[in-house]
Every structure is written in C-alpha cells, then in structure tokens.
Design a protein that fits this description.
The protein has 16 helices and 11 strands. By secondary structure, it is α/β, with parallel strands linked by helices.
C-alpha cells in the first residue's frame, strides 16, 4: 500500500463527499492525538472535507495539559541547585509566572539564570548523562500511556541511580475522552479518531466503550493522510448505516490487546488517581501515581513538595488564554484573541503554543488546518 498516493486520497475524498450528502446535520469528528492533528493540518485535510464535516482537535497534547504547578516545582528545584532533566517542549512550557515577570517563567529562563537544566530525548538518555556526570537530579516525566511504560520500566527495574528521582505527571486518555464527551453534550461529537500511538500500548479494545456507551463511531487510525481520510470515511459510513462500532484501521501497528508487557509494568509501578489537567481541573481516575513501594523514585515525596490542590487549578492559565477550550475542542486556536498576536510559537503565552503537538502551535506553523480564510481573519489581514 502506498500511503502517500495522491490518487488514492482523492478517491477517498470523492467517497467522503458522496456519503456525507446522506447524513443530516453537522458531523463533528474529534481526534485525540496531537500527531493526528498535525497530519490533518499539515496535509490540509480540513480543506478536503464537505461543508457538513467538522474536524475538531481534542486533548491530544500531554505537554499542553501539564499543570503549571509542576513546572514551578521544577524551576524551584533547579534554582535550588538540583539538576533538572526535561524534554525539549517542556523546557519552554510556561509555569504560573506571567510574561514580563522578574521571576523565571520556564525552565529555559531558569537555565539562563544559571540553573543546571539539561534537555534530553528520553528518560534513558537522562540516566546515561547522569552516570557520566553524577549530580542530584530530577526528571520531569510527562506523557500519556505512550511514554508511561518507559517511566515504569526504569522504576520497576531499578534503573534510576541513587540521587535521581522523577516528578510523575503521566495522564490517561480514556478518562479525558469521557470528560470531553460530557463537555460537548449541547453539540455532540459524532465520530472519534482514536489515538494511534496510545493504542499501541493500551490496545484497540480500550475504545470499545465509545460506540457501546455513547453510540459514537470510533476508528483507531494511523498518521498518513490516507489513514486519516480512510478513518473519516469509515465514520461517515457507520453514521449513514446507523451502526456505530470500533474499527482498527491501524492494524500495521496496533493490536486488539495492545502491549501487555507495557501494561503490566504500568500497573506494577503506579496506581490510578484523580489528577489535574491544565486549565480543566481534576478529572477522575485520569492520572498515575507511584505506588508506596516506589516512593523512593518520587521527587514530590522525596523533596516534600506540595501536590496541586483542587481549588488551585483554576489559576493554571494566564489571563485571556483559551487553551482550556482549545484542548477540549470547544474553541479553535483562531478563536483566541491572543493567537499569533501576543501568543506565537517563538514566544508562547499559553501552553498550547509550546509543543509540536499543541493545536495552537500546529495551526500557527502550518496555516489553520487548511482553512486559510480563518487564519487571515484572525490576523486582521482582510
């Protein structure tokens, strides 16, 4: 199969337009993966859709939903002399300080003040760096089920050297999917493109609840234009037939059961807890916390740091930022008055403009998902 064939994509486009004519009302289809949103925007897939098909980005960026509280904690540790390891996007993720503050807002700011902050691609790279140059260190472990196994493996197999701990900000996708559905009750989501990367770990079966409980057609999809177009067609065909179900379009990478070894490691290392999502508050059973026997790896516990409380999350976004609504698909990036004005990829004001998987960053870099007129209007260029 040639996943880059323009001819095949155009044939699917014709079929999408044909089937969409038989469906009443607007069909809102949500993706739950930042890489899906990137592919949709980069390939201009929104511009290929019929007028009654609305592709909406959902909570697919783990960096975007990492609470400012934990960024602040890492900044404090770094300024207190602890080495901090972080990914490249969390290096630029704003904490709770506002632009113009005389205090550091990001780990990049802390490094500029002399703090020992090291950008790495993985936890394993951080451990290797530590072994070459030992120093009291903390790693900011963020991500969904895709990256949680690497954290769990390092902890369970005791790969962390003495003096190396983690701040665990891993989050789970199915609970935020349920949460998002509830927020769209007035204008329901009618189709779901389930996250491909996450599904390689949890398995396609994890999304069975979506058609069974909510009656929403669901497709686990790959990341090429062909994959996404085929997923959209499957969803429309299910809507036309009135028979929602779960389809695994990404069989070349995703199995029904998923990666059982990775799942076992996560269960062994962590327990499921209610957790905060930036700008959204606490979502039931949506996060992972180290079990008591692994608290030796928990920087929050070892340094006596404070966990985020349930009455603090509302202050997690800077004034005027609409990242919470963008994360939930209740607003497009271009709906935010700060988009490409105060908030740009080079100088992000809100968290959705930081990561390559953030909807605002994707739209800013690749042109509003193919809806050029929206971008032009948002920049006042009419």
């Amino acid at each position: 199969m040639d996943y880059h064939s323009r001819e095949i994509v155009n044939k699917i486009k014709v079929m999408i337009h044909k089937v969409a004519k038989d469906i009443n009302g607007t069909v809102k289809i949500m993706d739950f993966c930042g890489t899906h949103e990137h592919s949709i925007v980069y390939n201009g897939i929104r511009s290929l859709m019929p007028s009654n098909v609305d592709l909406v980005a959902g909570p697919g960026c783990p960096v975007c939903i990492t609470p400012a509280h934990y960024v602040d904690a890492m900044i404090k540790l770094a300024l207190d002399g602890v080495r901090v390891y972080t990914y490249g996007d969390t290096y630029l993720l704003p904490g709770s300080e506002l632009p113009g503050s005389d205090k550091p807002r990001t780990l990049a700011d802390a490094k500029a003040l002399g703090a020992d902050v090291v950008v790495v691609y993985s936890l394993l790279e951080a451990i290797k760096h530590y072994r070459r140059d030992p120093k009291e260190s903390v790693f900011l472990a963020v991500g969904f089920e895709t990256t949680a196994p690497s954290t769990a493996s390092a902890v369970v197999n005791r790969l962390l050297p003495d003096g190396f701990t983690l701040i665990n900000v891993h989050r789970l996708t199915p609970p935020i999917m349920r949460y998002t559905f509830e927020k769209h009750r007035d204008n329901p989501i009618r189709g779901v493109i389930a996250p491909g990367h996450v599904s390689t770990i949890v398995g396609a079966r994890e999304w069975e609840f979506v058609p069974k409980e909510y009656g929403i057609p669901t497709v686990v999809a790959g990341f090429e234009a062909y994959d996404i177009m085929q997923a959209i067609l499957y969803i429309l065909l299910m809507l036309r037939s009135g028979k929602p179900r779960l389809v695994n379009q990404y069989k070349r990478a995703v199995t029904w059961e998923g990666n059982k070894k990775a799942q076992k490691l996560i269960r062994e290392c962590c327990e499921v807890v209610d957790s905060s999502w930036r700008g959204l508050g606490f979502v039931p059973e949506s996060g992972l916390s180290f079990r008591d026997k692994y608290k030796w790896a928990d920087a929050i516990y070892q340094y006596g740091l404070r966990e985020l409380s349930e009455n603090e999350w509302k202050y997690d976004l800077p004034p005027g930022c609409r990242c919470a609504e963008v994360t939930l698909g209740l607003a497009k990036p271009t709906d935010c008055p700060l988009f490409m004005k105060v908030c740009k990829p080079g100088v992000p004001y809100g968290p959705c403009m930081v990561s390559s998987e953030g909807a605002c960053s994707i739209w800013a870099r690749f042109g509003s998902g193919g809806l050029v007129e929206e971008l032009v209007e948002s920049l006042g260029l009419e």
